[in-house]
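Minutes, project check-in
Item: structure for the 224-residue chain
Input as provided by the requester:
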Amino acid sequence: MPINAEYRGPSDLPEIIPVFPLPGALLLPRGQMPLNIFEPRYLAMVDDAFRDGHRLIGMIQPDVSHSPDEAHPKLFHVGCVGRITQLAESGDGRYVLELTGIARFKIVEEPKVLTQYRQCKVDYFPYIDDFAARKGEEAVDREALLKALTEFLDANNLKVDWEGIENAPNEALVNALAMMSPYGPPEKQAMLEAPDLKTRAEILIAVTEMDLAKKRTSNDSGLQ
């Protein structure tokens, strides 16, 4: 994880952070998320993150299923703050950056601000274990996870770097697969809010198995 700053606990992070609502986007602690920033309000958000010195952005999903206001949608209560660890200018007004996840947070309130982008007062203490790398990874059923991954790859005619997967620690493996998974906002939010790595892996396996079962049922129906 390429990062210069050290975050040992909630006191190392600001209480109010800029947030970037993005459906289907899942950032997890120590995971890397690429972002292509082009909207003026979010370009300003990146500039301000560097100007303020913290380089932090809170990734969170809009809860569109319970929000009639498309311009200012309701947010899920839990997100993950990340630090900008890579940034490049595209030459056409965009920023291409990478966020490295630090810790999850729970929204306390959304204050009124003068910025075009949204900001939230957040609490990191419910997820204090996020600051400890690889915590609880020994409880992950790696065999079941790899079995589900193999079946998913076979069903979708996909290939993967198995050497990289075999060498990855359980935390990196579970979080990377969760972040890259093709599932919708509710499933992504469930994986984000999982109380521990073991539960996150179990949710990922369950969602994958349900997806595969639906595909098998659909294929069987098509043959009749």
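Outcome recorded: Residues 84 and 99 are 5 Å apart (CA to CA).
No further action items on this chain.
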